[in-house]
Amino acid sequence: AQSVAQPEDQVNVAEGNPLTVKCTYSVSGNPYLFWYVQYPNRGLQFLLKYITGDNLVKGSYGFEAEFNKSQTSFHLKKPSALVSDSALYFCAVRENYGQNFVFGPGTRLSVLP
Amino acid sequence: DADVTQTPRNRITKTGKRIMLECSQTKGHDRMYWYRQDPGLGLRLIYYSFDVKDINKGEISDGYSVSRQAQAKFSLSLESAIPNQTALYFCATSVPGLDTGELFFGEGSRLTVL
Fold first, then answer.
1. What are phi and psi of A98, to 5 degrees?
2. What is the pLDDT of residues A63-76, one digit of tens each?
3. CA B33/CA B43 separation, integer angstroms
4. Do B43 and A103 touch (CB under 8 A)?
5. Residue pairs between chains A and B whose CB atoms are closer than 8 Å
6. pLDDT in tens, B52-66
7. Would you call B90 exposed, middle or buried from its count of C-beta atoms within 10 A (0-12, 13-18, 19+)?
């Protein structure tokens, strides 16, 4: 069965500093990996995905993520955090040839001015 | 206008009442989903539909039912609401294909069952 772990409930970072939000996954086949962001009182918005190819994936708003097959990880990163990046971030996995997405519990990112 | 629209956005009801949450989309996607969000649990799949004639149970379908009235409309019903169904509910759509597949979400429907 598929599963996703986000080991940190909360990540705090100062504005201008780099940020990392961690995600590890478990699937039996090839993983399709996604990051979504949720701002207060809003639905989830797609940030980026890894399907195949280059392990470093670039997405919206300056975010990127690195797929590491040996560590079964897909950490979200940004070189310089903005206060406006403060939100709830979800990692999700979809198993190759599978039908559905499994979401992690979410990590709340707070960027402090 | 939003591509995926949910109504109502907020609803407070009492135990035992029947509730319907509605979702409509203008994206032309065949696949539609209902998820439930609870703090610390992420999103859990309730039901999904890959076309009008295809309805499938998700991880937590007990106590819920759905109706796919048209390609663009997918409704979630709670026949007899109970307090532990208090949650934020999301409708989502996607296109088929292993090289795409990201979900597009509505703004959510917050349901409180007293």
1. -85, 175
2. 999 999 999 999 99
3. 11
4. yes
5. 53
6. 999 999 989 999 999
7. buried
